[in-house]
Amino acid sequence: MRFLGPLKEGCRGQVVLHLPDGDIDFETYFLPHAGYERAAARSGLVLQWIPMEISQEDVEAFGPGFWDAYRRNPSTLAFRATRQ
C-alpha cells in the first residue's frame, strides 16, 4: 500500500495486488481503529479485532525474514461486529 498524502485519518492510499492472472489495483482510505470503533458504537455495535494469520505453508514458501515487516506492522485486519 502506498499512501497518497500524510498518514492521518482519511488519507487516501493505493493498493496493487500482483496475482497470477494479472494485477488488481484500487484505492482505499486510512482509518484508525478508533474511527471504526466510534462508528460501530454509534450503531450499537462492539468490534472485536481479528489479526490475519500467515500460514505455515506461506512462511515456508517465502523463507526466513520475508514476513518480519508485516508481523511488526500488519496492513490488514478483520473485525467482528456484535450488538451490545
Describe the SSE topology:
Layout: E1 2-3, E2 12-19, E3 22-29, H1 33-42, E4 45-51, H2 56-62, H3 68-72, E5 77-83
Antiparallel strand pairs: 1-2, 2-3, 4-5
Which radius of gyration do the C-alpha atoms yield? 16 Å
End-to-end distance, in Å? 33 Å
Instruction: Give the spatial strand order of the biggest sheet.
Output: 1-2-3
State the secondary-structure class: alpha+beta
Question: What summary fits the major beta sheet?
Answer: 3 strands, antiparallel
Amount of helix:
25-40%
Identify the quaternary structure here: single chain
Strand content: 35-45%
In total, the number of strands is: 5
> What is the ordering of alpha helices and beta strands?
EEEHEHHE
Mean pLDDT: 89
List key phrases describing it:
two-stranded antiparallel ribbon, single chain, globular, 26% helix, alpha+beta, 5 strands, 84 residues, three-stranded antiparallel β-sheet
Overview of the molecule:
This protein is an alpha+beta fold and about 80 residues long. It has a domain at about 45-84. The protein is about 25% helix and about 40% strand. It has three helices and five strands; from the N terminus they run E-E-E-H-E-H-H-E. The strands form two sheets. Strands 1-2-3 form a three-stranded antiparallel β-sheet, with no helix packed on it. Strand 1 and strand 2 form a beta hairpin. The longest helix has 10 residues, at about 35-40.
Question: In brief, what are we looking at here?
Answer:
The chain is α+β, with helices and mostly antiparallel strands and about 80 residues long.
